[in-house]
């Protein structure tokens, strides 16, 4: 499998941690490279490999079938009800697993790998949280949602039940409503996740706030510190 991604290698000779951030609908890995650029402003993150996967171009039903980069089809925006592309979701979840295994093959220990994403990408990261059979360092969830809760419950694996999770969401998000984010948080609480930090940012639409990014970097310092 050819893994298409924007990669920013560690500044240290040997990377000792990795951060994989999965972009949202219509975006690309390059759209999240700014995170690595910001991290390079401090030597605290020199040991980290950053990986920003690229989604394939697929037709999106909710956009009248228009083709764009996407991890799975959407039949409607911003609601937990209705038809779901379970097969597409699971296919992309396997792809995400491949990106993680790529970093492990490079010598990074799984417990030193952060998995994260924005919107659709965050939905995949949440799937990894609930189904991957190995423990990682943590999860960064930006404007995320859980679209296929019933299937994820079927495939549930408790390997990351104690793993730290950061979920951030804007309170005026018109794409993924705060109520959907609340449902997602509750879904994981009901599954038994306790090390799950849910943060609401005022006056934030479907985007990432500077304060949220600051909290995310604090999360990286805590979960995958320079050794």
From TrEMBL:
The keyword Lipid metabolism applies. The keyword Nucleotide-binding does not apply. Keywords: Fatty acid metabolism, Hydrolase, Lipid metabolism, Serine esterase. Hydrolyzes fatty acids from S-acylated cysteine residues in proteins with a strong preference for palmitoylated G-alpha proteins over other acyl substrates. Mediates the deacylation of G-alpha proteins such as GPA1 in vivo, but has weak or no activity toward palmitoylated Ras proteins. Has weak lysophospholipase activity in vitro; however such activity may not exist in vivo. Residues 7-224 form the Phospholipase/carboxylesterase/thioesterase domain. Pfam families: Abhydrolase_2. Belongs to the AB hydrolase superfamily. AB hydrolase 2 family. GO terms for molecular function: carboxylic ester hydrolase activity; palmitoyl-(protein) hydrolase activity. This is Acyl-protein thioesterase 1. InterPro entries: AB_hydrolase_fold, LYPA1-2/EST-like, PLipase/COase/thioEstase. It catalyses: S-hexadecanoyl-L-cysteinyl-[protein] + H2O = L-cysteinyl-[protein] + hexadecanoate + H(+). It comes from Wickerhamomyces ciferrii (strain ATCC 14091 / BCRC 22168 / CBS 111 / JCM 3599 / NBRC 0793 / NRRL Y-1031 F-60-10). It comes from the Eukaryota. Its EC number is 3.1.2.22. GO terms for cellular component: cytoplasm. GO terms for biological process: fatty acid metabolic process. The lineage of its organism: Eukaryota, Fungi, Dikarya, Ascomycota, Saccharomycotina.
């Amino acid at each position: 499998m050819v893994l298409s991604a924007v990669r920013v290698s560690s500044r240290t000779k040997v990377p000792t941690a990795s951060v994989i951030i999965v972009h949202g609908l219509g975006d690309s890995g390059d759209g999240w490279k700014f995170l690595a650029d910001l991290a390079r402003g401090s030597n605290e993150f020199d040991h980290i490999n950053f990986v920003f996967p690229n989604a394939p171009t697929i037709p999106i039903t909710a956009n009248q079938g228009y083709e764009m980069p996407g991890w799975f089809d959407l039949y409607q925006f911003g609601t937990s009800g209705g038809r779901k592309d379970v097969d597409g979701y699971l296919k992309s979840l396997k792809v995400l697993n491949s990106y993680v295994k790529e970093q492990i093959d490079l010598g990074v220990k799984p417990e030193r790998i952060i998995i994260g994403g924005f919107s659709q990408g965050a939905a995949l990261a949440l799937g990894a949280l609930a189904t991957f059979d190995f423990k990682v360092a943590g999860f960064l969830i930006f404007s995320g949602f859980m679209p296929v809760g019933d299937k994820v419950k079927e495939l549930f694996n408790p390997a990351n039940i104690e793993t730290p999770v950061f979920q951030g969401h804007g309170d005026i998000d018109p794409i993924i409503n705060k109520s959907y984010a609340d449902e997602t948080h509750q879904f994981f609480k009901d599954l038994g996740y306790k090390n799950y930090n849910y943060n609401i940012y005022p006056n934030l639409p479907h985007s990432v706030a500077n304060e949220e990014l600051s909290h995310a970097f604090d999360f990286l310092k805590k979960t995958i510190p320079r050794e």
